[in-house]
Model the fold of this input.
Amino acid sequence: MTFLTILIALFVERVAQEHRPARRYRWFDGYCRRLTTLSALQWLMSRPWGAVVALLPPLLLIAWLQTWLGELSALFGLAFGVFVLLMSIGPRDLGHDTEAFLEARDQGREALAGERAQALCLSQVPEHEPRRSVAVARAVVVLASRRLIGPIFWFVVFGAVGAAAFRLVHLLAERLQRDDCPAEMKRYSDELRHVADWAPARIAAAGYAIAGNFDGVAHAWRTFDYVPDGGPLSEAEQLLAQTGLAALETLPDDVDESSGDGGLAMDADLIPPVVEDALALVWRSLAMWVAVVGGGSLIATLA
Done:
C-alpha cells in the first residue's frame, strides 16, 4: 500500500498536475499566528519541547483519520494517504520552477531569469553566468530533499502522519522566522526542522552518489565538515549542496575563470548544462528510491 500510495502521488504531482490539491496552508497560517500572539502559547513555544507539543493537535487528528479510514476501507485509506502525501510534497513544484528559470535564461531574459533564480536559491544569486546556473543547480539538489525526498521518506517510516509532520515542521519554522516572536521560539522550531531534515538529507546524498559521480560524492562526503557560518544553509543542506554538486560531472572546474572578465554575461549556448543535469540527477535518484520502496514492499508481501 505504501508503494502504491507514493506511485499515485508522484504520478499526480508530475503528470496530472491539474488534479493535485492547492497547497496554500491558510489554516496553518492562522494556527501559527495564534502561537505568536497568545502569551501562554509563546511561553510553550519558548521551551525546547514546545514546537513538538504545538504540532500535536493537527498530527493527532491526521493519525486518527489515517487509522479510522484504513479500518473503514483500504480504498479510503489509500485515497487519504495520497492526499496527505500530495499536500506534504512541495509546496512548490521543483521541476516547474527549474524549467521556468531555464526558459528565461535561454531566451536571454536576464531580469526574469534572475528573479526565477532568486526564487529557487536560498542565498543571494550571482548576476552572471555560469555562476548563476551553478547557484541554481546547488538549490535544486538541496530543495529536492525538502520538497520531495523528505516527505516521501517520513511517509515510508510513519505513513501519512509522518509526511504531514515533516511538512508542518518546515512550515512552522518558516512562519516563525518571518514573524516578530521571541528568539527562543525561532531557535527551537529551527532545531526541530534540522532534526526532521537529517535522515532525508543522507538518503538524498546517497542517491546522488549512486545516480551520479560516485567517487566525487564519496570524497565530498568524507571531507564534509559542517561549520556554522550564520548563512541560510543548515548542516543537512550544506551536505546536500556539497555532495549534489560533486555528483555533477558537468560542473565547471573553475566557475570564477569561466565567468569571464568584467562581469560580462555568457552566451546561453556556452553555459554548461549544470542545471539540467542537476534536475536529471534528482529525478534519477528519486526513481531509484521509489524502486527500492517497491522492492521492499514486494518482499514484505511475499514473506
